[in-house]
Amino acid sequence: MNLSGASTVLVRPAGELGVKSASVQRRMEGTLRENVESALETRGFDATVETEHTRMYVHTTSAALENVTRTLTGVFGVSSVSPVLTCEPTLDDIRGVLAETAKEHYSGESFAVRARRAGQREDHPFSSPELERAGGTAVFEAAQEQGIEPTVDLDDPERTFGVECRPDRAFVYLERYDGPGGMPLGTQEPVVALVSGGIDSPVATWLAMKRGCPVYPLYVDLGDFGGVDHRARAERTVATLTRFTPGDLALRVAPGGEGLGRIINSTGMYRMLFARRFMLRIAEYVADQTDAVGIVTGEAIGQKSSQTAAALRVTGAVTDYPVHRPLLSLDKGEIIEQAKAIGTYEDATIDAGCNRLAPDNPATQPSLDVVRNFEPDELDDDARDAAQNLETVSLSETDDSDLCSPSRDSRV
Ligand code: ATP
Ligand code: MG
Question: Which of 165, 178, 320, 322 has the fewest CB neighbours in a 10 Å radius?
Answer without folding.
Answer: 320
